[in-house]
Amino acid sequence: MKIGLYFGSFNPIHIGHLIIANHIAEHSDLDQIWFVVTPHNPFKKKNTLLDNHQRLEMVYLATKDYDKLKDSDIEFKLPQPNYTVNTLAYLQEKHPKHEFALIMGEDNLKSFHKWKNYQIILENHHIYTYPRISEGKTDTQFNAHKNIHHVNAPIMQLSSTFIREAIKTGKNIKPMLPKNVWEYLDTMGFYR
Fold first, then answer.
1. Which residue from 2, 7, 100, 105 has the fewest beta carbons nearer than 10 Å?
2. Whole domain around residue 44: which residue ranges?
3. Are 75 and 39 in contact, with CB atoms under 8 Å apart?
4. Are residues 20 and 126 in contact, defined by beta-carbon separation less than 8 angstroms?
């Protein structure tokens, strides 16, 4: 089985995440997309994150009605901070019959050369990128690499940061979240 790993803090997961993941699941050779909830991204301040299990619950609620989309807490079990190369090695060892690929926005591809052991990732795994509006250029080594696949997914200009700020200022962001995620988030009083 070919599994695309969609890493993120999902703080919170929103319809943009689902649209991109579902599009890639339906328009690529991947069999499933796993939303890997990241406990601590080395590039983000940890104090802005909700509890790991609360974010995982929101991802579960958002994906439970989609056959090809799954929640994953795999990084909760690994040493912090998490590095993608370590997570991939762990998953490959745990699930030797699966093939794991990465899903990332084109904006992340621009900084991919800064990732820990990025050459090992690129050598051993496929990367599926989706369009993002961002500044800067992609390193030329990634432009026509055999393991990098560009998926023409819709461009989503929606961010979890925007949603958190909007909630904090009392805006109605209900249409931006899956219904059951909104209900959970609202009941718990998150981001207020």
1. 2
2. 2-157
3. yes
4. no
Domain membership of residue 97 (yes or no) is yes
φ/ψ of 145, rounded to 5, equals -70, 140
The total of structural domains in the chain comes to 1
**Distances 68 to 78, 184, 186 between C-alpha atoms, Å:** 25, 23, 27
pLDDT digits (tens, 9 = 90+) for 37-71: 998 655 666 566 898 999 999 999 999 999 999 99
Q: Where does residue 148 fall: left (phi above 0), alpha (psi -120 to 50 degrees), or beta otherwise?
A: beta
The CATH number that applies at residue 110 is 3.40.50.620
What are the pLDDT digits (tens) for 85-103?
999 999 999 999 999 999 9
Residue 65 covered by a domain: yes
- Quote the longest CA-to-CA distance of the chain: 47
Q: Does the residue 90 lie in any domain?
A: yes
How far apart are alpha carbons 105 and 118 in whole angstroms? 16
SS3 track for 39-71: CCCCCCCHHHCCCHHHHHHHHHHHHCCCCCEEE
